Automatic annotation (TrEMBL):
SMART domains in the cross-refs: FBOX
Origin species: Brassica napus
Domain F-box: 11-51
Protein name per Swiss-Prot or TrEMBL: BnaC04g42990D protein
Alphabetized InterPro entries for the sequence: F-box-assoc_dom_typ3, F-box-assoc_interact_dom, F-box-like_dom_sf, F-box_dom, Gal_Oxase/kelch_b-propeller
Superkingdom, natural source: Eukaryota
Database matches in Pfam families: F-box, FBA_3
Length: 383
C-alpha cells in the first residue's frame, strides 16, 4: 500500500463522515483510537458540527443520578418520544458515562453538563467547590480553575453556548450578605477551548440574588433571580455571551422556585409554573401558566393558562416536577422520586390529553431518584 493510500480514506470524505455519524458514541471513541486517519476525521470541526446537527434532529431524554453508594454521577439516555400514545414506553439502555460525585448540578447546554465538585487545593485546609465541565457522550471531564475569590462556597454557575464564535462559556458568581440581603458578587466568565483557562471579572450593576433556574437560548443566558432578596419581586437576568453584558427583565409576579421551569419556546424564553395557589405539582393541581418573553427591551411578556383535564387526577399519584416542553404543545412532567416502574407524563395542551410513558431499562436502579432532562443532544466535541 502506498503512502498516499495510507493517508486517505477508501471512500469519499463526505460519505465517510456520514457513516461515522451513525455510530454510537462509545463506538466512535474506539474508532478514534484505531488509527491516526480516523482520529483526524472524528476530531475535525466539520465532523463534530455534522454530528451535532444530526443529534439536534433526534433529541433524547437524559436521566442523571447521583449514586452515593459509589460516589458517582450516572448518565443514561433514551429516545425522546414524539406524540406519545397511551401505554407507550421507551427503553433507556444507553449508559453514557460515570463521573465522580458532584457537589450540586448546574445543568446542561449543547450536550455538555456542568456541576460543582469539592477539590483540595494547596495551602488551604478545607476543600473548595470548583465547577466541572463534562461531556457524557465522550466520557471526558474538565475540572476548571478556582474562581477569583476568597470564598470557598456559595458558587452558582451557568453554562452557555455562543453560536457566532462557536464557544462554550461559563458564567459564575458568588453570593454575599450585603445589608442583610443575599446578592450576587464577583461575576466571572471563563471561555472553554482557550490555551490557558482563566477567569476574568465582568461588571454587573444589577443587584440580585441568583437561582438555580436557567437556560441558554441563541447565545443568551437567562436565569431566574429576585431583587432585594424578595421572592415576590422576581426577575430574569439576561447575560449576552457575545458582548458579556448583563440586562434584566421584571416578571411582575412571584416566581415559585420549586415549580418554575425555563423552556425554549420557539426560540423565545418561556417560564412554566403552577397556576394554583400552592407551588407543588400534585394530583390536586388544576392549571399551569406559561409566560413567554416577547421583547426584553420593552419588558413585554405574553401569558398562557393551560387547564388540566379531569384525567390528570387518575394518572398522577405523587409530587411531580415540570421537566420541560417538547415543541410548543407537549409539557412533560417527571416524578420527584421515581419508583418502579419509571415513567414520565406528557400533557398535550392542544388535545387536552394526559399520557403516561414508561421508561424501561432502569430496573437496576429500583427505588433511586433521577433528574430528568429533555431535548438532550449528544455532542462528540472533545474537551
Amino acid at each position: 500500500m502506498t503512502r498516499r493510500h495510507r493517508n486517505s480514506l477508501p471512500v469519499p470524505d463526505d460519505l465517510a463522515m456520514e457513516i461515522f455519524t451513525r455510530l454510537p458514541s462509545k463506538a466512535m471513541a474506539r474508532c478514534r483510537c484505531a488509527c491516526k486517519l480516523w482520529s483526524s476525521v472524528l476530531r475535525s470541526q466539520d465532523f463534530t458540527e455534522l454530528f451535532l446537527t444530526k443529534s439536534c434532529a433526534r433529541p433524547q431524554l437524559l436521566f442523571v443520578r447521583e449514586d452515593y453508594s459509589v460516589r458517582e454521577i450516572v448518565f443514561i439516555t433514551s429516545p425522546q418520544p414524539e406524540n406519545p400514545e397511551e401505554n407507550s414506553y421507551v427503553v433507556a439502555t444507553n449508559h453514557l458515562a460515570r463521573f465522580p460525585r458532584s457537589n450540586g448540578f448546574y445543568g446542561c447546554t449543547n450536550g455538555f453538563f456542568c456541576y460543582g465538585a469539592n477539590r483540595n487545593l494547596k495551602r488551604l485546609k478545607r476543600p473548595v467547590c470548583v465547577p466541572v465541565i463534562c461531556n457524557p457522550s465522550t466520557a471526558q471531564s474538565l475540572i476548571l480553575p478556582r474562581l477569583i475569590s476568597k470564598k470557598r462556597y456559595g458558587v452558582q454557575s451557568y453554562l452557555g453556548y455562543e453560536p457566532m464564535e462557536k464557544e462554550l462559556k461559563l458564567l459564575s458568581m458568588n453570593s454575599s450578605l450585603v445589608s442583610d440581603e443575599w446578592i450576587s458578587v464577583e461575576h466571572q466568565v471563563l471561555t472553554l477551548g482557550t490555551t490557558k483557562l482563566s477567569w476574568r471579572l465582568v461588571e454587573c450593576s444589577i443587584s440580585h440574588c441568583p437561582s438555580t433556574k436557567w437556560i441558554c437560548i441563541s447565545g443568551v443566558l437567562y436565569y431566574a433571580a429576585s431583587a432585594d432578596g424578595d421572592s415576590e419581586n422576581s426577575m430574569v437576568v439576561c447575560f449576552d455571551l457575545r458582548s458579556e453584558k448583563f440586562s434584566s427583565v421584571k416578571l411582575g409576579k412571584a416566581m415559585p422556585d420549586s415549580t418554575t421551569t425555563m423552556v425554549n419556546y420557539s426560540g423565545k424564553l418561556g417560564l412554566f409554573m403552577s397556576g394554583d395557589s400552592h407551588d407543588d405539582v400534585t394530583r390536586s393541581s388544576t392549571s399551569f401558566e406559561l409566560w413567554v418573553l416577547l421583547d426584553a427591551a420593552k419588558q413585554e411578556w405574553s401569558n398562557h393558562v393551560y387547564v388540566l383535564p379531569p384525567s390528570w387526577e387518575n394518572v398522577v399519584a405523587e409530587t411531580m416536577f415540570i421537566a420541560g416542553m417538547v415543541g410548543t404543545n407537549e409539557i412533560v412532567f417527571s416524578p420527584s422520586y421515581q419508583k418502579m416502574p419509571y415513567y414520565v407524563i406528557y400533557f398535550n395542551v392542544e388535545r387536552k390529553t394526559i399520557t403516561k410513558v414508561g421508561i424501561q431499562g432502569l430496573e437496576a436502579f429500583q427505588g433511586k431518584s433521577f433528574k430528568t432532562y429533555l431535548n438532550y443532544v449528544e455532542n462528540v466535541k472533545l474537551l
